[in-house]
Amino acid sequence: MKDEIIETNGPINQDSKNLAVLIWVGTIFLGFIPGLLGYLFKNDDAFISAHSKEALNWSITAGIAYVVASILTVVFIGILLMPVIGICHFVFCILGVVAASKGESYMTPWAIRLIK
After folding, report:
1. Where are the domains of the chain?
2. With bands split at pLDDT 50, 70 and 90, how would you rate the model's confidence at 116?
3. Residue 77: CB atoms within 10 Å
4. Which alpha helices (H) appear in 13-116, and where do they start and end?
């Protein structure tokens, strides 16, 4: 998988790291809303914009997966998929938090790249 390189005009400041961490933590609990807010209102900062896009892409992908799993509950497979999706959502968001706190870029595996 190709990693996206975030181009900045120097070192990433602590405020950008903190906001990116908050976006990922918010994604755990609030879904797509923190990523959307970061994408709409902080698009002047490349670091925050990249993490917002990735959090938004992941939360949309997880939402689609939850809808598909809820449809598949008719044939019992969905009941097995729901906890797997929840665990993946939690783990990928925590990995995003760790990468954002270090000032690194992060691309979630299996995410559909709707927003580029």
Report:
1. 14-39+46-102
2. confident
3. 13
4. 14-30, 33-41, 46-71, 77-102
